[in-house]
Amino acid sequence: MLKVGIIGAGRIGRVHGESITKYVENAEIKAIADPYLNEEQKEWIKEKGIPYAYTDYKNILEDSEINAVLICSSTDTHSKISIEAIRAHKHVFCEKPIDHNISKIQEVINELKRNPEIKYQVGFNRRYDHNFKAIKQAVAEGKIGKPHILKITSRDPEPPSIDYVKISGGIFLDMTIHDFDMIRYLIGSEVVEVYAAGNVIVDNAIGEAGDIDTAIITLKLENGAMAVIDNSRKSAYGYDQRAEVFGSKGQVSISNDSGSSAVISTENGVTGEKPMFFFLERYMQAYSEEIREFIDAIINDKDTPVNADDGLKPVLIGLAAKKSLEENRPVKISEIKL
User: Fold this and answer.
1) Which one of 40, 285, 288, 325 has the fewest CB atoms closer than 10 angstroms to its CB?
2) 74 shares a domain with 101
Protein backbone atom coordinates (compact mmCIF):
# COMPACT_ATOMS: atom_id res chain seq x y z
CA MET A 1 0.00 0.00 0.00
CA LEU A 2 1.45 3.34 -1.11
CA LYS A 3 1.67 5.85 1.73
CA VAL A 4 0.89 9.45 0.89
CA GLY A 5 1.36 12.78 2.64
CA ILE A 6 -0.71 15.87 1.84
CA ILE A 7 0.83 19.32 2.26
CA GLY A 8 -1.96 21.86 2.69
CA ALA A 9 -5.26 21.25 4.50
CA GLY A 10 -7.28 23.91 2.72
CA ARG A 11 -10.08 23.28 0.24
CA ILE A 12 -8.06 21.51 -2.45
CA GLY A 13 -6.05 19.47 0.06
CA ARG A 14 -9.29 18.20 1.54
CA VAL A 15 -10.68 17.45 -1.92
CA HIS A 16 -7.73 15.17 -2.60
CA GLY A 17 -8.05 13.72 0.88
CA GLU A 18 -11.65 12.79 0.15
CA SER A 19 -10.63 11.29 -3.20
CA ILE A 20 -7.95 9.06 -1.75
CA THR A 21 -9.99 7.83 1.21
CA LYS A 22 -13.11 7.15 -0.86
CA TYR A 23 -12.11 6.35 -4.42
CA VAL A 24 -8.40 5.57 -4.79
CA GLU A 25 -7.13 2.05 -4.27
CA ASN A 26 -3.54 1.11 -3.45
CA ALA A 27 -2.91 4.34 -1.50
CA GLU A 28 -3.54 5.63 2.00
CA ILE A 29 -2.90 8.97 3.66
CA LYS A 30 -0.41 8.73 6.50
CA ALA A 31 -0.07 12.44 7.29
CA ILE A 32 -1.28 15.91 6.43
CA ALA A 33 0.49 19.18 7.19
CA ASP A 34 -0.60 22.80 7.29
CA PRO A 35 0.96 25.68 9.27
CA TYR A 36 -2.52 27.07 9.99
CA LEU A 37 -4.34 23.94 11.13
CA ASN A 38 -7.60 24.90 12.82
CA GLU A 39 -10.04 22.87 14.89
CA GLU A 40 -12.36 22.16 11.97
CA GLN A 41 -9.48 20.80 9.90
CA LYS A 42 -8.24 18.71 12.83
CA GLU A 43 -11.71 17.22 13.22
CA TRP A 44 -11.85 16.41 9.50
CA ILE A 45 -8.42 14.75 9.68
CA LYS A 46 -9.62 12.66 12.61
CA GLU A 47 -12.83 11.67 10.79
CA LYS A 48 -10.80 10.50 7.79
CA GLY A 49 -8.61 8.33 9.98
CA ILE A 50 -5.40 10.09 8.98
CA PRO A 51 -2.85 9.12 11.65
CA TYR A 52 -0.70 12.23 11.77
CA ALA A 53 -1.32 15.98 11.49
CA TYR A 54 1.55 18.46 11.47
CA THR A 55 2.06 22.19 11.23
CA ASP A 56 5.47 21.64 9.59
CA TYR A 57 5.41 19.89 6.21
CA LYS A 58 9.04 18.84 6.64
CA ASN A 59 7.82 16.12 8.99
CA ILE A 60 6.22 14.54 5.93
CA LEU A 61 9.36 14.88 3.81
CA GLU A 62 11.45 13.29 6.56
CA ASP A 63 9.14 10.28 6.95
CA SER A 64 10.79 7.35 5.15
CA GLU A 65 7.48 5.45 4.99
CA ILE A 66 5.80 8.13 2.89
CA ASN A 67 6.31 7.42 -0.81
CA ALA A 68 4.52 10.38 -2.38
CA VAL A 69 3.37 13.87 -1.49
CA LEU A 70 0.52 16.01 -2.76
CA ILE A 71 1.40 19.71 -2.74
CA CYS A 72 -1.84 21.58 -2.08
CA SER A 73 -0.40 24.59 -0.27
CA SER A 74 -0.41 28.22 -1.46
CA THR A 75 0.93 28.81 -4.98
CA ASP A 76 3.99 30.71 -3.78
CA THR A 77 5.24 27.54 -2.03
CA HIS A 78 4.72 25.03 -4.87
CA SER A 79 8.12 25.19 -6.57
CA LYS A 80 10.08 25.36 -3.30
CA ILE A 81 8.33 22.37 -1.77
CA SER A 82 8.51 20.50 -5.08
CA ILE A 83 12.31 20.74 -5.09
CA GLU A 84 12.54 19.76 -1.42
CA ALA A 85 10.26 16.77 -1.99
CA ILE A 86 12.21 15.59 -5.05
CA ARG A 87 15.45 15.81 -3.06
CA ALA A 88 13.76 13.80 -0.30
CA HIS A 89 13.04 11.12 -2.95
CA LYS A 90 9.27 11.53 -2.81
CA HIS A 91 7.06 11.27 -5.85
CA VAL A 92 5.18 14.55 -6.28
CA PHE A 93 1.70 15.59 -7.30
CA CYS A 94 1.67 19.40 -7.44
CA GLU A 95 -1.44 21.51 -7.83
CA LYS A 96 -1.29 24.05 -10.65
CA PRO A 97 0.58 26.23 -11.21
CA ILE A 98 4.05 25.01 -10.28
CA ASP A 99 4.92 28.70 -9.99
CA HIS A 100 4.13 32.03 -11.63
CA ASN A 101 7.85 32.53 -12.26
CA ILE A 102 9.12 30.49 -15.21
CA SER A 103 12.71 30.38 -13.91
CA LYS A 104 11.45 28.70 -10.74
CA ILE A 105 9.49 26.19 -12.80
CA GLN A 106 12.67 25.50 -14.76
CA GLU A 107 14.49 24.83 -11.47
CA VAL A 108 11.92 22.12 -10.72
CA ILE A 109 12.37 20.63 -14.20
CA ASN A 110 16.15 20.63 -13.75
CA GLU A 111 15.83 18.91 -10.38
CA LEU A 112 13.66 16.23 -11.97
CA LYS A 113 16.32 15.67 -14.63
CA ARG A 114 18.78 14.98 -11.82
CA ASN A 115 16.31 12.54 -10.26
CA PRO A 116 14.73 10.67 -13.21
CA GLU A 117 13.22 8.01 -10.97
CA ILE A 118 10.84 10.55 -9.41
CA LYS A 119 7.29 10.76 -10.78
CA TYR A 120 5.98 14.33 -11.01
CA GLN A 121 2.42 15.25 -11.98
CA VAL A 122 0.73 18.65 -12.24
CA GLY A 123 -2.91 19.04 -11.19
CA PHE A 124 -4.74 20.02 -14.36
CA ASN A 125 -7.84 18.07 -13.39
CA ARG A 126 -10.01 19.02 -16.37
CA ARG A 127 -8.06 16.59 -18.55
CA TYR A 128 -9.83 13.84 -16.59
CA ASP A 129 -13.35 15.21 -16.95
CA HIS A 130 -15.60 12.85 -18.91
CA ASN A 131 -16.81 15.60 -21.24
CA PHE A 132 -13.39 16.95 -22.20
CA LYS A 133 -12.06 13.41 -22.60
CA ALA A 134 -14.85 12.74 -25.11
CA ILE A 135 -13.74 15.76 -27.19
CA LYS A 136 -10.12 14.64 -27.00
CA GLN A 137 -11.02 11.16 -28.19
CA ALA A 138 -13.13 12.42 -31.11
CA VAL A 139 -10.31 14.70 -32.27
CA ALA A 140 -7.61 12.06 -31.80
CA GLU A 141 -9.62 9.49 -33.78
CA GLY A 142 -10.04 11.92 -36.68
CA LYS A 143 -13.82 12.00 -36.43
CA ILE A 144 -14.01 15.74 -37.09
CA GLY A 145 -11.10 15.80 -39.54
CA LYS A 146 -8.37 18.39 -39.28
CA PRO A 147 -9.13 20.82 -36.42
CA HIS A 148 -9.72 24.39 -37.58
CA ILE A 149 -11.31 26.26 -34.64
CA LEU A 150 -11.48 25.53 -30.91
CA LYS A 151 -13.85 27.50 -28.69
CA ILE A 152 -13.79 27.34 -24.89
CA THR A 153 -16.23 29.08 -22.56
CA SER A 154 -15.14 29.17 -18.92
CA ARG A 155 -17.15 31.30 -16.48
CA ASP A 156 -17.17 31.10 -12.70
CA PRO A 157 -20.44 31.39 -10.76
CA GLU A 158 -19.01 34.13 -8.57
CA PRO A 159 -15.69 35.95 -8.22
CA PRO A 160 -13.12 35.01 -5.59
CA SER A 161 -12.42 37.20 -2.59
CA ILE A 162 -10.42 40.35 -3.21
CA ASP A 163 -7.74 39.07 -0.83
CA TYR A 164 -7.37 36.05 -3.11
CA VAL A 165 -7.37 38.16 -6.28
CA LYS A 166 -4.41 40.14 -4.92
CA ILE A 167 -2.24 37.00 -4.64
CA SER A 168 -3.70 34.95 -7.50
CA GLY A 169 -1.27 36.06 -10.20
CA GLY A 170 -4.15 37.49 -12.21
CA ILE A 171 -6.98 35.92 -14.15
CA PHE A 172 -4.74 34.44 -16.85
CA LEU A 173 -2.49 32.56 -14.41
CA ASP A 174 -5.28 31.62 -12.02
CA MET A 175 -8.43 30.94 -14.02
CA THR A 176 -7.58 30.88 -17.73
CA ILE A 177 -4.54 28.66 -17.11
CA HIS A 178 -6.93 25.68 -17.13
CA ASP A 179 -8.23 26.75 -20.55
CA PHE A 180 -4.70 27.20 -21.90
CA ASP A 181 -3.96 23.63 -20.82
CA MET A 182 -7.20 22.44 -22.43
CA ILE A 183 -6.20 23.93 -25.79
CA ARG A 184 -2.93 21.97 -25.80
CA TYR A 185 -4.69 18.83 -24.58
CA LEU A 186 -7.66 18.86 -26.95
CA ILE A 187 -5.82 19.87 -30.12
CA GLY A 188 -2.43 18.26 -29.48
CA SER A 189 -0.56 21.27 -30.79
CA GLU A 190 1.39 24.10 -29.17
CA VAL A 191 0.23 27.72 -28.96
CA VAL A 192 2.50 30.11 -30.87
CA GLU A 193 0.72 33.48 -30.51
CA VAL A 194 -1.78 35.08 -28.14
CA TYR A 195 -3.96 38.18 -28.28
CA ALA A 196 -5.89 39.06 -25.13
CA ALA A 197 -8.56 41.67 -24.49
CA GLY A 198 -10.07 42.26 -21.08
CA ASN A 199 -12.01 44.60 -18.86
CA VAL A 200 -13.41 45.08 -15.37
CA ILE A 201 -17.16 44.58 -15.68
CA VAL A 202 -18.16 42.40 -12.73
CA ASP A 203 -16.55 44.11 -9.73
CA ASN A 204 -14.58 47.36 -9.64
CA ALA A 205 -12.68 46.08 -6.60
CA ILE A 206 -11.04 43.48 -8.85
CA GLY A 207 -9.75 46.30 -11.03
CA GLU A 208 -8.52 48.18 -7.99
CA ALA A 209 -6.60 45.04 -7.04
CA GLY A 210 -4.83 45.20 -10.41
CA ASP A 211 -6.74 42.49 -12.27
CA ILE A 212 -9.57 42.09 -14.78
CA ASP A 213 -12.71 39.97 -14.44
CA THR A 214 -13.78 39.50 -18.07
CA ALA A 215 -11.58 38.41 -20.97
CA ILE A 216 -11.54 37.16 -24.53
CA ILE A 217 -8.35 35.50 -25.75
CA THR A 218 -7.56 34.43 -29.31
CA LEU A 219 -4.70 32.04 -29.98
CA LYS A 220 -2.84 30.65 -33.00
CA LEU A 221 -1.46 27.10 -32.89
CA GLU A 222 1.48 25.43 -34.62
CA ASN A 223 -0.80 23.20 -36.69
CA GLY A 224 -2.65 26.18 -38.15
CA ALA A 225 -5.74 25.88 -35.97
CA MET A 226 -7.08 28.88 -34.07
CA ALA A 227 -8.72 29.07 -30.65
CA VAL A 228 -10.96 31.46 -28.74
CA ILE A 229 -11.46 31.52 -24.97
CA ASP A 230 -14.02 33.65 -23.17
CA ASN A 231 -13.82 34.09 -19.41
CA SER A 232 -15.98 35.77 -16.80
CA ARG A 233 -15.61 35.80 -13.04
CA LYS A 234 -19.41 35.83 -12.57
CA SER A 235 -22.01 33.69 -14.31
CA ALA A 236 -25.43 34.23 -12.70
CA TYR A 237 -26.74 30.82 -13.79
CA GLY A 238 -23.86 28.68 -12.47
CA TYR A 239 -20.51 27.20 -13.43
CA ASP A 240 -20.34 27.50 -17.22
CA GLN A 241 -17.88 25.07 -18.84
CA ARG A 242 -18.37 24.42 -22.55
CA ALA A 243 -16.15 23.64 -25.51
CA GLU A 244 -16.31 22.97 -29.24
CA VAL A 245 -13.80 21.80 -31.82
CA PHE A 246 -14.72 22.51 -35.45
CA GLY A 247 -12.84 20.66 -38.16
CA SER A 248 -12.73 19.73 -41.83
CA LYS A 249 -15.22 16.86 -41.39
CA GLY A 250 -17.50 18.24 -38.69
CA GLN A 251 -17.50 19.37 -35.08
CA VAL A 252 -17.65 18.00 -31.57
CA SER A 253 -18.98 19.99 -28.63
CA ILE A 254 -19.81 19.56 -24.96
CA SER A 255 -22.37 21.34 -22.81
CA ASN A 256 -22.61 21.88 -19.08
CA ASP A 257 -23.30 19.18 -16.54
CA SER A 258 -26.47 19.68 -14.49
CA GLY A 259 -28.41 17.79 -11.84
CA SER A 260 -30.41 16.06 -14.58
CA SER A 261 -31.06 16.38 -18.31
CA ALA A 262 -34.82 16.77 -17.77
CA VAL A 263 -36.50 19.46 -19.85
CA ILE A 264 -40.03 20.57 -18.97
CA SER A 265 -42.20 21.84 -21.81
CA THR A 266 -45.51 23.54 -21.06
CA GLU A 267 -47.71 26.28 -22.48
CA ASN A 268 -45.62 28.71 -20.43
CA GLY A 269 -42.32 27.74 -22.03
CA VAL A 270 -39.50 25.19 -22.07
CA THR A 271 -37.21 24.97 -19.04
CA GLY A 272 -34.34 22.81 -17.85
CA GLU A 273 -31.99 22.72 -14.90
CA LYS A 274 -29.20 25.25 -14.50
CA PRO A 275 -25.57 24.07 -14.66
CA MET A 276 -23.92 22.82 -11.49
CA PHE A 277 -23.00 25.86 -9.41
CA PHE A 278 -19.66 24.93 -7.87
CA PHE A 279 -16.46 23.56 -9.43
CA LEU A 280 -16.29 20.72 -6.91
CA GLU A 281 -19.68 19.46 -8.05
CA ARG A 282 -18.60 19.69 -11.67
CA TYR A 283 -15.15 18.16 -11.37
CA MET A 284 -15.10 15.84 -8.33
CA GLN A 285 -14.87 12.77 -10.56
CA ALA A 286 -11.96 14.36 -12.42
CA TYR A 287 -10.09 15.09 -9.19
CA SER A 288 -10.39 11.44 -8.20
CA GLU A 289 -9.30 10.19 -11.61
CA GLU A 290 -6.15 12.33 -11.74
CA ILE A 291 -4.97 10.98 -8.39
CA ARG A 292 -5.69 7.41 -9.51
CA GLU A 293 -3.51 8.05 -12.57
CA PHE A 294 -0.71 9.48 -10.40
CA ILE A 295 -0.74 6.48 -8.04
CA ASP A 296 -0.85 4.11 -11.01
CA ALA A 297 2.21 5.79 -12.57
CA ILE A 298 4.15 5.23 -9.35
CA ILE A 299 3.08 1.62 -8.76
CA ASN A 300 3.54 0.53 -12.38
CA ASP A 301 6.53 2.76 -13.15
CA LYS A 302 4.82 4.66 -15.98
CA ASP A 303 5.18 8.25 -17.15
CA THR A 304 2.80 10.66 -15.47
CA PRO A 305 0.15 11.93 -17.92
CA VAL A 306 0.64 15.61 -16.99
CA ASN A 307 4.31 16.30 -16.39
CA ALA A 308 6.34 19.36 -15.37
CA ASP A 309 6.66 20.53 -18.98
CA ASP A 310 2.85 20.45 -19.18
CA GLY A 311 2.96 22.66 -16.10
CA LEU A 312 5.33 25.11 -17.76
CA LYS A 313 3.56 25.62 -21.10
CA PRO A 314 0.28 27.12 -19.80
CA VAL A 315 2.24 29.57 -17.64
CA LEU A 316 4.15 30.73 -20.73
CA ILE A 317 0.83 31.24 -22.51
CA GLY A 318 -0.57 33.08 -19.46
CA LEU A 319 2.41 35.42 -19.32
CA ALA A 320 2.05 36.09 -23.04
CA ALA A 321 -1.64 36.89 -22.48
CA LYS A 322 -0.74 39.35 -19.69
CA LYS A 323 1.81 41.03 -21.95
CA SER A 324 -0.73 41.18 -24.77
CA LEU A 325 -3.32 42.84 -22.53
CA GLU A 326 -0.80 45.37 -21.23
CA GLU A 327 0.60 46.24 -24.67
CA ASN A 328 -2.62 45.81 -26.69
CA ARG A 329 -1.03 43.62 -29.36
CA PRO A 330 -0.56 39.96 -30.32
CA VAL A 331 2.35 38.36 -28.46
CA LYS A 332 4.31 35.34 -29.63
CA ILE A 333 5.13 32.69 -27.04
CA SER A 334 8.76 32.95 -28.16
CA GLU A 335 8.84 36.48 -26.69
CA ILE A 336 8.43 35.02 -23.19
CA LYS A 337 11.97 34.13 -22.21
CA LEU A 338 12.81 31.01 -20.26
Assistant:
1) 40
2) yes
